[in-house]
Write a structure and sequence with these properties.
Elements (H helix, E strand, L loop, with lengths): L27 H6 L13 E5 L4 H12 L3 E6 L2 H14 L5 E4 L5 H15 L4 E4 L14 H29 L3 E6 L11 H20 L5 E8 L2 E2 L8 H7 L9 E2 H12 L10 E4 L25
Parallel strand pairs: 1-2, 1-4, 2-3, 4-5, 5-6, 6-9, 7-8
The chain binds ligand L4XM7KOE and NADPH dihydro-nicotinamide-adenine-dinucleotide phosphate.
Length: 306
């Protein structure tokens, strides 16, 4: 007997995104006002490369790192978004950000990017793999192209970045530091199975490389954000957004600055003995509940089919 589908989630596609919706997360005015506990020369003399630096957590990290004295490089696919970060940092800190349009899925482009950062700054200290994304959908309905797009971006793209950065560190005999932004996947992620698979891959890749690459003084760690309100939220339906924060016992959303401050810590000398770790920033969500970003199927509701 065929089960009758009772659950028809509204899936937002990029063309459905309404950019006139209320702002999501910290805007530039908010970012300018964020305080930091760190000393203002904490990252002086360090070079940091942030993928996906044109928005959300990547943009917040670029600004914070520049404020702490780092030389900053960013990449992403959308030149317009990248330029908003370049301008923000210039206005706030006065320093120039190196911006290189790059699709991290393209291994040749990634190799060129790492080369440009080395040529421009004379080296790289910390790589932040923040670029990524997915769309909420029941796994059974994923198209092949959709599955491949998410795996290629979040797993393969992150790997190309890690490998190219590490090759240069090994060649130059310089220490290296990698921070991978993943997600809170320990209980699985219904309606985000593609990203869950990719992020779990990155976490265990990172744990493995933390050992394999320790001989070259390269550290590898991950940050697993829970619900962090950013521009990326515009991809989700309002009904889902109204529920996201209820999936953690604090009943709050994190913000891009929370994550930026953790990244800055991992980029600092204070983190020199942290390696192969996953730092979860989810307000306790892992112990509390799961999110259904495209709507919970009736089966799971209290009076749903048993
Ligand atoms: C890690 C959180 C998981 C969420 C679940 C828990 C919810 C907790 C709350 C936290 C919310 C978290 C939010 C974020 O992570 S926001 C920050 C990240 N930003 C994004 O995710 C940006 C939006 N996503 C994308 O840009 C795309 O999804 C993608 C990552 C796939 C980009 O790939 P590409 O550039 O190649 O995109 P295309 O448009 O060409 O699509 C390729 C194929 O992918 C399929 N697809 C794409 N979008 C959808 C959709 N909305 N619904 C169904 N299928 C989709 C499709 O097959 C595309 O091919 P076609 O267009 O030819 O059909
Ligand atoms: N916000 C949240 O609650 C959570 C977010 N995350 C993850 O954290 C990271 C940052 O997310 P957030 O700041 O919220 O969202 P954003 O959508 O603002 O940031 C994602 C960035 O990734 C870049 N990007 C995506 N695909 C590629 C690609 N193929 N090549 C280069 N750059 C790419 C985008 O830039 P462009 O469009 O220019 O290519 C964009 O700037 C993402 O990996 C996200 O999935 C994880 C858990 C929860």
């Amino acid at each position: 007997m065929n089960a009758t589908p009772t659950h028809k989630p509204k899936i937002f596609r990029p063309e459905d995104v309404d950019y006139e919706r209320p702002k999501r997360g910290l805007d530039e005015d908010d970012l300018r006002k964020q305080p930091t506990i760190y000393r203002d020369d904490m990252l002086a003399g360090k070079t940091i490369l942030i993928t996906g630096g044109g928005s959300g957590m990547g943009k917040a990290t670029a600004l914070l790192a520049a404020r702490l004295g780092a030389q900053v490089a960013i990449c992403g696919r959308d030149e317009e978004k990248l330029q908003t970060t370049v301008k923000l940092v210039k206005e706030e800190v006065g320093s120039d950000v190196l911006s290189v349009g790059t699709n991290i899925r393209d291994a040749d482009a990634v190799e060129a990017l790492i080369g440009k950062v080395h040529d421009h700054f004379g080296g790289l200290d910390t790589l932040v793999n923040n670029a990524g994304g997915q769309f909420p959908q029941d796994a059974i309905d994923f198209s092949r192209k959709g599955w491949l797009a998410v795996i290629d971006t979040n797993l393969n793209g992150t790997w190309w970045m890690m490998q190219e950065a590490a090759k240069r560190w090994r060649e130059d005999g310089k220490p290296g530091n990698i921070v991978n932004i993943v997600a809170n996947v320990e209980r699985g992620m219904p309606q985000a199975a593609h990203t869950c698979a990719a992020r779990a891959g990155v976490i265990y890749l990172s744990k493995t490389l933390a050992t394999e690459w320790a001989q070259w003084n390269i550290r590898v760690n991950c940050i697993g954000p829970g619900v962090i309100e950013t521009e990326g939220f515009r991809m989700y339906p309002e009904e889902a957004l109204a529920r996201f924060h209820k999936a953690n016992p604090m009943k709050q959303r994190g913000n891009a600055w929370d994550v930026a401050e953790m990244i800055a810590y991992l980029a600092s000398p204070a983190a020199r003995f942290i390696n192969g770790d996953l730092i979860v920033m989810d307000g306790g969500q892992a112990q509390w509940g799961v999110v259904w970003p495209a709507g919970m199927p009736d089966y799971f509701s209290e009076d749903g089919a048993a």
